[in-house]
Amino acid sequence: MILPIVGYGDPVLRKVGEEVAKDYPNLNETIANMYETMYNACGVGLAAPQVGLAIRLFIVDCEPFSDSDDVSEEEAAQLKGFKRTFINAKMLKEEGELWGFNEGCLSIPDVREDVYRNEKITLEYYDENFTKKTEEFDGLIARVIQHEYDHIEGILFTDKISTLKKTLIKKKLQNIMDGKARPDYRMRFVPKKR
């Protein structure tokens, strides 16, 4: 089922996600709905807070980046089949050079900005079968994971841009909070105060 994506300004996007218990109700259905929602919105990642759930769960599918002219053949091969579910993820290390990349977010439609992130990360997490894993990721895969990981920590990519850039996008952010954004996927905006 395609779920509405929560828009910028909703308090759930600022909450640190709660740990997901093995017996979390309808977890497999939630994960399946998140994948369907992400693909419907042409995203490469989606975190549970973006569908209104303040839990430590996010998904990524980096395949769309594999066709980009900006990636090497080697990285394209890594991106090709990279699809993962991350439950109760914990960032163990962020290392390497900071590098910029133009990021966007399904909860913040029509806003894209350069964000600087570390090139390599080490993450501990559980997969959809609750198998514990510790893995290193780098390049675009690491970037997508860092972006989604930030969501379960209550952090948005707009928090990582300069004050000047924030000033320049203020009107766009206000439009999202006012429910005026019109992406080509379902969104849920912050209810207006009366």
TrEMBL record:
Lineage: Bacteria, Pseudomonadati, Bacteroidota, Flavobacteriia, Flavobacteriales
Entry binding sites for Fe cation: C105, H147, H151
Cofactor note: Binds 1 Fe(2+) ion.
GO biological process, alphabetically ordered: translation
Function in brief: Removes the formyl group from the N-terminal Met of newly synthesized proteins. Requires at least a dipeptide for an efficient rate of reaction. N-terminal L-methionine is a prerequisite for activity but the enzyme has broad specificity at other positions.
Gene3D superfamilies linked to this entry: Peptide deformylase
Pfam families per the UniProt record, alphabetical: Pep_deformylase (PF01327)
Superkingdom classification of source: Bacteria
Catalytic function, reaction form: N-terminal N-formyl-L-methionyl-[peptide] + H2O = N-terminal L-methionyl-[peptide] + formate
Protein name listed in UniProt: Peptide deformylase
GO MF annotation list: metal ion binding; peptide deformylase activity
Keyword line: Hydrolase, Iron, Metal-binding, Protein biosynthesis
Enzyme Commission number(s) from the entry: 3.5.1.88
InterPro entries according to UniProt: Peptide_deformylase (IPR023635), Peptide_deformylase_sf (IPR036821)
Family matches, as CDD domains: Pep_deformylase (cd00487)
HAMAP family from the UniProt entry: Pep_deformylase
Positions of the catalytic residues: E148
Cofactor(s), names only, from the UniProt record: Fe(2+)
Broad class of enzyme this protein falls into: hydrolase
Protein family per UniProt: Belongs to the polypeptide deformylase family.
